[in-house]
Amino acid sequence: MKILAIDTSCDDTSAALIAENRVLSNIISSQDAIHSRYGGIVPEIASRTHFLNIAATAKRALSEADVSFDDIDKIAVTKGPGLLGSLLVGLSYAKGLAYRFKKRLIGINHLEGHLYAPFIEKEVKYPFIGLVVSGGHTSIYKVLGNEKIELLGTTRDDAAGECLDKTARLWNLGYPGGKAIDRVAAKGDPGRFSFPRTALADGSFSFSGLKTAAIMFSKKYSDKIKDMMPDVAASFLEAVVDTLVIGAVAACKAEKIELLAVSGGVSANRRLRTKLSAACRENGIELLMPEARFTTDNAAMIGFVASMKGYDKNWTRLNASAVASI
Ligand code: KG4
Ligand code: ZN
Q: Which residues face 141 on adjacent strands?
């Protein structure tokens, strides 16, 4: 079964070719250089850039995998959540291909893609607790089987990645912010300053208080913050990381599940990976995290989820949804 997968949910145009759980190609055309000028994603520009890049990206995915359009068995495309204009570019292109080459088509939830990314090219094991930490989402799921997914908790305000991105922008550290904070924090002391960790009793997350603490900190130390930045960034990142680690381990314990799969762009973070590994070892939890190339947005994870599902019989009715939950 050869699947051509497409993801245009946010600001990266991606196409991948999956065959029997092997990733034959996974092309990601990044828009970082374009949006960094504005310090954040400009949705209109993201849509137009997807529109420019999508055909070449899909063609490259096919040629790298040495597969032709005719050889594809199924097309998988992200239907949401994400930026509506961006999603519509991928969906329109995928529908056009399905019509032209008479292929089956399936719409895939982007979060389900992230959720399963740690299992790409591996065997999926159930049950597991899945923590998805990206720029737009911070959610914990209990996964008992294929399509047996229960949302245990989510963020009440900002996502972890959003909190990192906004704070990095406040401190002029670069774009995307999470990656920039990862880089600067590596040279700093995470114990020098104290930032708040918000633990909510119902298992949900909150990051807006932490973001406000960063703003207050900037005001208080405006004259010397630049010189202390590695320590400030490391201490701030530590609060984000601790919040996520505490939440994930608590969910595993509460549900008595000993497998934790952590995914999404923020799961690329080195400090998060180190502290999660230590916490899981201490608590007898097996930890799975995606390879670096499957952490941020990519089409391979969309194709992988599609390999566990059928297809949409009524695919002409398939539509984009900005807020789709799993
Ligand atoms: O999964 P993703 O590519 O897109 C969404 O679906 O949102 O995640 C993007 C997020 C951004 O907030 C970005 O700053 C963050 O992932 N990110 C990181 C790192 N690399 C990307 N955060 C922390 N450390 C990193 N190394
Ligand atoms: Zn994503």
A: 130, 151
Q: Indicate if ligand 1 lies below 6 Å from the C-beta of 10.
A: yes
Q: Is the CB of 113 within 6 Å of ligand 1?
A: no
- C-alpha of residue 149 to centroid of ligand 1, in Å: 23
Q: What is the pTM of this model?
A: 0.96
User: What distance separates the 2 farthest-apart alpha carbons in the chain?
Assistant: 64
Phi-psi category of residue 151: left, alpha or beta, with phi > 0 → left and psi -120 to 50 → alpha = beta
**77 against 198, higher pLDDT:** 77
* Helix/strand/coil for 214: helix
pLDDT of residue 164: 97
Q: Hey, what domains does the chain have and what are their CATH numbers? A: 2-116+295-317 (3.30.420.40), 125-289 (3.30.420.40)
Strands (E), 243-285: 259-263
Backbone φ and ψ for 212, nearest 5 degrees, come out as: -65, -40
